[in-house]
Amino acid sequence: MCAAMRFPEAFPLRTLKAKPVIKAQTTFFSTYDLPKVVQTDQGSNFMSKVFAQVLKVLQIQHQTSSPYHPESQGALERFHQTSKSMLRKYCLDSGKCWDEGLPLLLFAIRETIQESLGFSPADFVFGHTVRGPLRLLKEKWLESPPTETNVLDYVCKFRERLFSACQAAQDNLANSQSKMKARYDKKAVLRSFAPGDKVLVLLPLSGSCLQARFSGPYVVDRKLNDTGYVIKTPDRRKKVCVCHVNMLKRYVTQDDSTAVSLTTPVSVCASASYLLSEDGLTDKNGCVPMAWLGNSAVLKDLDSFLAHLSQPQRADIVALIEANLLIFSDHPSRTSVLAHDIILQNEKPIKQHAYRVNPVKHRLMQQEVDYRGGLSD
Q1: Which residues pair with 229 in a beta bridge?
Q2: Distance (Å, rounded) from C-alpha 125 to C-alpha 32?
Q3: What angle do CA 222, 224, 225 make, to 5 degrees?
Q4: Is 345 helix (H, G, I), strand (E, B) or coil?
Q5: Which residues form the Integrase catalytic domain (predicted)?
Q6: Can the peptide bond before residue 332 be classed as cis, meaning omega within 30 degrees of 0?
Q7: Does residue 241 contact residue 203 with C-beta atoms inside 8 Å?
Q8: Do 216 and 201 form a contact (C-beta atoms < 8 A)?
Q9: Where are the domains of the chain?
Q10: pLDDT tens digits for 104-122?
Q11: What is the pLDDT of residues 258-291, one digit of tens each?
Q12: Mean pLDDT, the chain, whole residue set
């Protein structure tokens, strides 16, 4: 697709290896023009040596988008969505011969006026409105005698139409981009990282390219621009990768120097490891109630719980409880009798696939979460 004119082209291929893709791309270049820059994703067919050699011979600069960030090729991705929807509808009506109807679908897309430009892609390539079904219907209803035009006058008017269409398209595109930017900036938050910062990277899971989660922590090597960063990934096949800022999240370690109160608190303020103003992903600030044990309800009706004991035994237990009421509070407190350290092998999170839990176990887990006041979430 031409990014300036939104003029698309598609070829039915049996395989997406480098050589068939190069043949189709050469056909596109020979039909229209040799571009100066070609932008692709980082697929193996586009990153092959053969593809790079062909572009070098044709003196074409190759630019790649950020991995797992298709927004950098928004116009092309939108064309993919539109073409797939049209092909799905065509296959439901005509069967499996989708490749035969592909030229007709491309013709329909090319003659459609683009909202961002105000003109159809065919208007920029051919300089006039193509003779499509609507044009045929107009000619059938409004028959007009053919007019003779001088070749020189036609060429002059043709250039004037292209120049005026280009100016109008630039104005429409600027207005459309300003509206899109205004809508995007309502929720966008400016974030930046410095070299040496630890971050979590949104990467696909091994064995499942359609699922992704934050992995890491990794270290920022350097900053390319406002949105691109070079991240060191020593545990992956590529030791260094370029990531978009939307795929990064700051990694914050727990501060060991935080003082812990010895008194029994009514609630605990759970501090988040990242803030909404920092990456725009989530906000976990707020006070979470402590785990409730329900000891106060037992102490109010202590006689019914001790009814199976004799009177001397009951008196001893009541005296023991009254002497240590702090231990039998509803909120667990901190003890200074002993302490233990939890030693981890490394700071990397454990990667484990999500499995469906048995309904019986799920019910017990939910009771435990409710019992602990939601601190297990």
Answers
A1: 223, 243
A2: 9
A3: 130
A4: coil
A5: 1-129
A6: no
A7: no
A8: yes
A9: 1-110, 291-371
A10: 888 888 888 777 777 778 8
A11: 444 444 444 444 444 444 444 444 444 444 445 5
A12: 76
Residue with tokens 């070749």: 151
Determine contact, residues 229/248, Cβ cutoff 8 Å: yes
8-state DSSP, 245: G
φ and ψ at residue 61, rounded to 5 degrees: -80, 135
- Number of Cβ within a 10 Å radius of residue 54: 20
The answer for residues whose C-beta is within 8 angstroms of residue 160's C-beta and 6 or more apart is none
Does this model's pTM top 0.70?
Answer: no
What's the CA gap between 55 and 350, in Å, rounded?
43
Can you give the pLDDT at residue 145?
66
- At the second CATH level, the architecture of 1-110 is 2-Layer Sandwich (3.30)
Parallel/antiparallel/unpaired status of strands 61-64 and 37-40: parallel
Whether the CB-CB separation of 219 and 197 falls below 8 Å is answered with yes
**What are the DSSP E strand ranges found in the chain?**
37-40, 61-64, 198-205, 208-223, 228-232, 240-244, 248-250, 267-269, 287-289
Polymer length of the chain: 377
**For residues 230 and 178, is the Cβ–Cβ distance under 8 A?**
no
pLDDT at 307: 82
CB 233 within 8 A of CB 239: yes
Q: Pick from 204, 197, 270: which is nearest to 68 by CA?
A: 204
